[in-house]
Design a protein that fits this description.
By secondary structure, this protein is mainly alpha-helical. It is 63% helix and 0% strand. It contains 3 helices and no strands.
Length: 70
């Protein structure tokens, strides 16, 4: 971001982090590394990891729900 040092750069609001990560994963035609994802969403790798684990849980829950609708 122009005008901000890396340390002072505004961070993505936590409520936007998971949808942003999900969008990047679906839009990419290559595997994305944790450092690349963290840089892209301007967040710490630990925060990105937490959101990735949350996404995995969400998808598992959706799959389990679909399996019970037969």
């Amino acid at each position: 971001c122009r005008g901000f040092s890396k340390k002072d750069r505004p961070r993505m609001p936590p409520s936007n982090l998971r949808p942003a990560i999900e969008a990047l994963l679906f839009a990419s035609d290559q595997p994305l590394t944790l450092p690349l994802l963290a840089e892209a969403v301007e967040s710490e790798p630990e925060a990105v990891t937490a959101e990735l684990l949350g996404l995995a849980d969400d998808y598992r829950a959706q799959e389990a729900t679909r399996g019970h609708r037969e």
